[in-house]
Specification:
Blueprint (H helix, E strand, L loop, with lengths): L3 H18 L6 E4 L2 H19 L17 H25 L8 E3 L16 H17 L2 H29 L1 H9 L9
Antiparallel strand pairs: 1-2
């Protein structure tokens, strides 16, 4: 059984929600540079192409990376849905301050509700979790490489975002950092 079809649904929901949500954001006051944006975007797109494109199954990239079991397929599907749910929940809490680019919006506020109470970058964390789940469900080496690129892209983006948030919010953001995890929740 191929699990790929069971993981496409949450990704489609994610893309639709993102497209609709992008229509209702505040005006941008400050944004990252062109080179910064498209360097990260290139890494992320390469990761998603490897994750989802059967055309990328060249050589070892087309081989399974773990023994196929029904339980592992279920875990992959559940992680995909859970990751997308976290990303959507975080996007909802950002509301009009969201942007696909690293930006500071007009009258920007530091969001500390919902998943932002435990994580500084829950959208990226959710998408990383969904990518890991998708890789487990699809079960190809290309997916492992794709997930590594996706995580790297979001890690770089999160680091750059933190520099901009520190410049904007100073001590308030530093205090937020002490109580939240970067890409993994701080439990204590």
């Amino acid at each position: 059984m191929t699990w790929k079809y069971l993981i496409e649904g949450p990704w489609i929901v994610f893309v639709v929600y993102w497209a609709v949500g992008a229509l209702k954001t505040r005006r941008t006051e400050r944004t990252e540079s062109f080179a910064s944006r498209y360097g990260i975007l290139f890494i992320e797109i390469a990761g998603f192409v490897l994750l989802f494109s059967d055309e990328a199954e060249i050589g070892i990239l087309g081989h399974r990376f773990i023994p196929r079991t029904f339980a592992l397929g279920v875990v992959g599907v559940v992680l995909t849905w859970a990751g997308i749910a976290v990303a959507l929940w975080a996007r909802w809490h950002l509301g009009q301050y969201w942007s696909a680019r690293i930006t500071i919006k007009e009258d920007h506020k530091l969001i500390r509700t919902g998943p932002y109470a435990r994580l500084r970058h829950p959208i990226y964390s959710g998408l990383d979790l969904a990518a890991i789940g998708s890789a487990l469900a699809i079960d190809r080496w290309r997916c492992v490489v794709g997930v590594c690129l996706i995580i790297l892209g979001y890690w770089i983006k999160a680091r750059r975002e933190e520099r901009m948030l520190t410049a904007q919010f100073g001590v308030e953001f530093q205090e937020h950092c002490r109580h939240t995890g970067f890409l993994f929740p701080r439990l204590g």
